[in-house]
Design goal:
The structure is a single chain. The chain is mainly α. It contains six helices and no strands.
Length: 157
């Protein structure tokens, strides 16, 4: 089995700055998606093993303006990375749509005052954390699906 970067080569275009930039961008996007998969898996495991700790972590979302904008930056980065990486992944259309949903909802949250986001988070996080085993299994499954899709990359067309 080849590592997912197997089809991100310069193929004799080592002196082409555009080709080098494309490979570097694709590589960075791959790393971001790998980190997102690791985050989901870790959140899933923590939700199953230490549910109170996971609840406390999730409850901190949108708690301050700084956290709000950090969350938005990470969401935009992961969404963009998914859009860039999706063409090489199985089920490319689904990953592309999910990436654009992340980017789009991030743009919407960016124009909403952070206090409104905080109010929504203070209502929605308790709803989402009512059943921590389900949340844990879902997050772990999401992380494993992302890992699997990265490992089973296909040649981009």
């Amino acid at each position: 089995m080849e590592w997912p970067l197997h089809n991100l080569t310069l193929s004799g275009r080592e002196h082409d700055p555009l080709a080098l930039t494309q490979v570097m961008l694709a590589s960075a996007a791959l790393v971001v998606v790998l980190l997102a998969a690791a985050y989901l898996a870790a959140l899933g495991i923590t939700s199953l093993v230490r549910p109170e700790r996971a609840k406390a972590f999730l409850s901190a979302f949108a708690s301050t303006q700084r956290v709000h904008f950090t969350e938005l930056a990470i969401r935009a980065l992961v969404g963009g990375a998914l859009v860039l990486t999706a063409p090489r992944m199985p089920f490319a259309p689904a990953f592309t749509v999910f990436g654009w949903i992340l980017v789009g909802t991030t743009l919407l949250l960016a124009v909403v005052p952070w206090r409104l986001h905080r109010r929504f988070a203070s209502w929605s996080v308790p709803q989402a954390t009512r059943n921590m085993p389900l949340l844990g299994i879902g997050a772990l499954a999401g992380g494993l699906v992302l890992f699997g899709a990265l490992l089973l990359q296909r040649a981009a067309g």
